[in-house]
Amino acid sequence: MPTEDRKDPAAPAVRFERVTKRFGDHTVLDGLDLEVGRGERVTLIGPSGSGKTTILRLLMTLERVTDGLVLVDGQPYSHMPRGAGGKLVPADERHLAVLRRRIGMVFQQFNLFPHMSVLENVVEAPVHVLGEGREEARRRARDLLDLVGLGDKAEARPTRLSGGQQQRVAIARALAMRPEILLLDEVTSALDPELVAEVLDVLRDIARNTDITLLCVTHEMGFARDVSDRILMFDRGRIVESGPAGELLESPTHARTRAFLGSVR
Amino acid sequence: MADFPAELRRALPRLAEGLLVTAEATVLGAALALLLAYVLGLSSRSARLPVRGAARFVVEFFRGTSLYVQLFWLFFALPMVGFRLEPLACAVLALGLNYGAYGAEVVRGAITAVPRAQTEAGIALGMGPALRLRRVVLPQAHALMVAPFKNLLVQLLKATPLLSLVTVPDLTFQIDQLRSATGATAASYLLLLGLYFAMAVGLSLLMNALERVAKARLGQEGGA
After folding, report:
1. What integer pLDDT is reported at residue B222 of this predicted model?
2. Cα Rg for chain B, rounded, in angstroms?
3. Phi, psi (degrees; rounded to nearest 5) at A176
4. Mean pLDDT value across chain B
5. In chain B, domain spans
6. What is the nearest CA distance from A249 to chain B, expressed in angstroms?
7. Which stretches of chain B score pLDDT less than 50?
8. Which option is the CATH number for B4-217: 3.90.180.10, 2.40.10.350, 1.10.3720.10, 3.40.640.10?
9. Residue A259, number of CB atoms within 10 A of its CB
10. Shortest CB distance from A158 goes to which of B128, B139, B219?
């Protein structure tokens, strides 16, 4: 049965229902419930290994859930209905392809395509996935490169750019697909300290000027405070504490959160 | 020995023909091997078990049986079950199957060596498996394939003297004729060594140039 797009306008952008993820014997997420509203900006914080990145990777379908259900716009995403009863079975590649298009991701290590120029990196998916005309795609790509301050680097090879520049190209590349949900996975963790600001500034701009749903994993608390509506504190695959950004950062109620914030400041 | 230069001069047209046959067998054999290397290499990464299993079997079979035996089987045994192939066709088929099986491992290895992160970037951009393979993984894998393919190509060239055993009039065959006619064994085989060496060096230089191009495309100017 082909997957139909039945977007529920009232549904949250993302919903995790009792999601468990195990790698072998190691349980990374343990029956997690999570909702992210449309247009909401949510930041996940917590010690490494607490499952934050796994949440993003599950949403990008780079990992599959062990148990539980992920919904996007109210539609089953990790699973798909099959047969007359609509019994949910694990999603196949064709089902994933439909909803996945609404989601974009920026990686810690940029993951630009080294065999393409900067411009080609940004043009690639709009042309070959969305079927956009090459001229239109190139025009939009140039606009996006201007937006991230790299209009003059369009013809350069990614390997010739600094880490901060590469990450800004990766952001432009993700935006070129017009995602409704953007996942940011520790996007400044691989950067030299002096290059962090240029990337975060671009992301602050995007947060300010679009209504894109943002899900970030970061250790940059200043950035988290600036862009987030809500911060979730993770520890060992569970949400320890959650609340509005300012509140959670200023007056965390949970000892675990206090200890973590103390360690990253 | 005294008449070797004269005999050599007289034999030159036949040597040139032999050289051409060797070149033909090498080029056609390599072309078939390259095709099979891709088909088998990609199939051995298929998600479907029967496809993967069949590819693995073919690869292991042709790697695990000698080229010599494969060639003899095609030339001497196949006609007994009703298929007779031209000697050169046997040669091309045997070279293609044997080196295609080794090449399949090169293709598979190169694809595996492209970082998983590249595939993940493709997934994050909504690219399906075929598009990711064609636009993201293979272009990067190609650069990794050139060096091992160069080795295989030179090995294939050096395996072509086997063809003289199934009556293909290649370079080795022609020089052997010259040796019989003159009795100048040392000089004839020295010439043969020199000619194969020159051809191998030529192929190596060609492949090195190809590798520089492939690496430059990945933004690794100068190669590494």
Report:
1. 42
2. 21
3. -60, -25
4. 91
5. 4-217
6. 31
7. 1, 222-224
8. 1.10.3720.10
9. 12
10. B219
Contact A113 B121 (CB under 8 A): yes
Give the pTM. 0.87
CB contact under 8 A, B136 and A113: yes
CA dist A31 and A16 (Å) reads 9
Q: From the CA of A221, how many Å to the nearest CA of chain B?
A: 26
| Nearest CA among A108, A16, A97 for reference residue A58 | A16
Cβ of residue A105 closer than 8 Å to a chain B Cβ: yes
Asked whether the beta carbons of residue B140 and residue A114 sit closer than 8 angstroms, the reply is: yes
Residue A254 DSSP class: S
Name the pairing type of β-strands A103-106 and A87-90: unpaired
Which residue intervals of A45-92 are DSSP H helices? 52-59
Choose among B149, B164, B148: nearest CA to B196. B164
Of B123, B128, B217, the CB nearest to A62: B123
Residue-by-residue DSSP string for A111-141: ---TTS-HHHHHHHHHHHTS---HHHHHHHH
B97 phi-psi bin (left φ>0, alpha ψ -120 to 50, beta other): alpha
Could you report the average pLDDT of every consecutive run of 10 residues in chain A (265 residues)?
65 93 92 94 91 94 93 90 83 87 95 95 96 96 95 94 95 96 94 91 93 94 92 91 91 90 83
Q: How far is B115 from chain A (nearest CA, A)?
A: 9
- Facing residue for B126 by CB, picked from A109, A159, A177: A177
| B129: chain A residues, CB-CB within 8 Å | 93
Per 3-state DSSP, chain B is made up of helix, strand and coil in percentages (nearest 5) of 85, 0, 15
Question: What pLDDT does residue A1 have?
Answer: 46
Of A60, A93, A160, the CB nearest to B124: A60
B118 vs A111: CB contact, 8 Å cut-off? yes
By three-state DSSP, how is residue A2 classified? coil
A83-120 pLDDT, tens per residue? 777 788 888 888 888 889 999 999 999 999 999 999 99
With beta carbons less than 8 A apart as the criterion, state whether B198 and B23 touch.
Answer: no
Task: Say yes or no for a CB contact (<8 Å) between B120 and A62.
Answer: yes
What is the predicted ipTM?
0.93
Distance in angstroms (rounded) separating the CA atoms of residues B132 and B7 = 59
Taking contacts as CB-CB distances below 8 angstroms, the residues of chain A near B126 are 97, 100-101, 125, 129-130, 177
